[in-house]
Each structure stands twice: as structure tokens, then as C-alpha cells.
Amino acid sequence: MEIKNATIEDFDIAFDYIEKLWTSNDYDKETIKKVYQEVLENEKDFAFFLYDEGKVRGFCHGTYFNTFWHSGKSCYVSSIISNEEDRGKGYGRRLMDHAKKLAEDIGCTAMFLDSGLAREEAHRFYDIYGFEKCAFCYQLKLD
């Protein structure tokens, strides 16, 4: 297995994962490409792919920021997804392990994420990995 940092040349692959993760959204590909480029350019963001046997098996994106809640720098995992046919093979764990190492390397005091209510399989993975349910996630869409 190999971790490869995302590049602009990988955008089509990343976009495919983004669409699979949030199926309730309609995405404008050019708008998402601009966001993706900003992620790649921001030192507080990370994005990477997991390869195994020459094939992309998953994608992860997150960001670091300071928070009073965790008394320091935190890592927010915004996107983590493995291929549906590859679930249960350890790829999700490998993705999360790498995100965790990145967070530890820069001194984060915590990692957190949110997950759609219907994603019960993902919730089991987060529970097994060691995440604890600690909050509800709310959103307010802005014009």
C-alpha cells in the first residue's frame, strides 16, 4: 500500500470520490476544482490517495485549525472514503492512520469528523477506530 499526496492532475479521481461521499449534493465540477486547488495550496489542508496493487483504493481530505474546545490545534477529517468493493480490507484504517500521523506530527491535540446520519457502516468504522460520539453536527447553508 502506498499513500500519494493529491495533485491537480488527480482532480478527476478526487471528484469521483467527492460525488460518492455526498450523494445528496449536486456539484459544479469547475467550482469543486477551484476548491480542490485551494486545498492543495493551503498548508493547513491535506489531501491524499491510497493506492494498492496499482489502483486507487481511497481518498482522504482534512484541515488543521486552532480550537479552544481541544486546547490547541485540531485535525478535522472532512472526507474519508474507500471504494465500496474494497470495504473491510483495511483501506479505511490505512487512510485514517495516515491522517492521524499527519495530525500527530504537527502537534494536534485531537481529531474529529462528522458523518451523515444514513452512513451507518461508516459509523461502525469510526467507533471501532476509537472515535467517540461527542456532538451533533448542524449546518446552515448561506446564499
Keywords for this structure?
143 residues, Aminopeptidase, single chain, N-acetyltransferase domain-containing protein
Tell me the strand order in the biggest sheet. Answer: 1-2-3-4-5
Computed CA radius of gyration, to the nearest angstrom: 15 Å
Major pleated sheet: 5 strands, mixed
Judging from the principal axes of the Cα atoms, what is the shape? globular
Order of helices and strands: EHHEEEHEH
| Mean pLDDT metric | 93
Which CATH architecture?
3-Layer(aba) Sandwich
Walk me through this protein's architecture.
The protein has a 5-stranded mixed β-sheet with strand order 1-2-3-4-5, with helices on both faces. It is 34% helix and 27% strand. 21% of the residues are buried. The N and C termini lie far apart (42 Å). The longest helix has 15 residues, at 91-105. It has 143 residues and is α+β, with helices and mostly antiparallel strands. The chain has a single domain, classed as Aminopeptidase, CATH 3.40.630. Residues 1-143 form the N-acetyltransferase domain. It comes from Siminovitchia fordii. This is N-acetyltransferase domain-containing protein.
SSE layout and pairing:
Blueprint: E1 2-5, H1 11-21, H2 29-41, E2 45-52, E3 55-67, E4 72-82, H3 91-105, E5 110-112, H4 120-129
Parallel strand pairs: 4-5
Antiparallel strand pairs: 1-2, 2-3, 3-4
